[in-house]
Write a structure and sequence with these properties.
The complex is a heterodimer. Chain A is mainly beta. In chain A, strands 2, 5, 6, 10, 11 and 12 form a 6-stranded mixed beta sheet that branches. In chain A, strands 3-9-8-7 form a 4-stranded antiparallel beta sheet, with no helix packed on it. By secondary structure, chain B is mainly beta. The termini of chain B are far apart. The chains are: A mainly beta, B mainly beta.
Amino acid sequence: AQTVTQSQPEMSVQEAETVTLSCTYDTSENNYYLFWYKQPPSRQMILVIRQEAYKQQNATENRFSVNFQKAAKSFSLKISDSQLGDTAMYFCAFMKWDNNDMRFGAGTRLTVKP
Amino acid sequence: NAGVTQTPKFRILKIGQSMTLQCAQDMNHNYMYWYRQDPGMGLKLIYYSVGAGITDKGEVPNGYNVSRSTTEDFPLRLELAAPSQTSVYFCASSLQGYTNTEAFFGQGTRLTVV
């Protein structure tokens, strides 16, 4: 079974600075997808970024980028120029390429301080 | 734009009672999902559907039932509620699977079983 581990239950960062959230996963699959979701206090789940395992290039979406290390099974999220609106729970998720069962980590609560 | 609508937002049930959590989407999405989120944990898939008339089990289906008679609606039925079902329930939808398209989440239903 696939497992996703987020080892940082809570993190904080000053506004405008950069922060990196860690995620590791365990799988024997070669083809899969990785995701980062943001959950603000409104409880809405919002897709931040997605990475296909077969792509070597790290995904980027504006201020959000990932460091995907397939051999190490690591998938960290970097948030640059942090904004107050980035305050939220962040979930890392894994899914096999032929499956709809997305497995989530326990989450990291990020607080951006003014 | 309504997106994914869940009702009710909050509910308290007594042990042994039954209820249906409603989920509706107006985006003509084929895929719909039900998740539960326990305190301090990530989401776990209960059931999903790839189209009207088709449903399949996820990671934690026991104690729940679903049906998908229309594209728009995907209700989740709890029979004989138990304290272990105290959780926040999220419904989501996507045009295709997660690998091809973004999933949109509802704002959740907080259920307490006492």
